[in-house]
Design brief:
Order of helices and strands: HEEEEEH
Number of domains: 1
Number of strands: 5
Radius of gyration: 19 Å
Shape: elongated
Helix content: 40-55%
């Protein structure tokens, strides 16, 4: 016999995660509609320890209308992605220059896809358990 309380809890948690994933993806799409492609230079790496080891977050600079913008990537890698002085592509919001990111699939869609997948997995687990 199925425990309906467990199903309801799993579907509630899964639904919340799916809503969160859709909000993240919608924000990313809104950013991409405004974003302009540019080029930046990696100036350094910030090392952040995590439970999965150290992650090196590239810090990059780009110039818009004579103003230098410095941004740290929210995603880190081990080993570091790129080298200091290397030119990389960036997307930035012309209305808010602090919103800039490296245009790679994992940077653009990874968080939303991951959270949505976990939500679906929890919903399926609620039915199967």
């Amino acid at each position: 016999m199925m425990d309906w309380a467990l199903v309801i809890v799993c579907w509630t948690i899964g639904s919340v995660l799916l809503v969160l994933a859709s909000v993240i993806i919608r924000r990313r799409l809104k950013f991409l509609r405004k974003a302009i492609k540019g080029y930046a230079t990696i100036t350094e790496f910030h090392c952040n320890p995590t439970d999965m080891g150290r992650r090196f977050h590239p810090v990059f600079e780009f110039e818009i209308d004579g103003k230098t913008i410095c941004q740290e990537s929210e995603y880190g890698f081990n080993p570091p992605a790129g080298k200091i002085g290397e030119k990389i592509g960036v997307l930035y919001n012309p209305d808010n220059l602090s919103q800039a990111m490296v245009p790679e699939f994992s940077h653009l869609w990874g968080t939303g896809i991951f959270i949505g997948s976990v939500g679906i997995a929890i919903m399926v687990a609620g039915i199967l358990l």
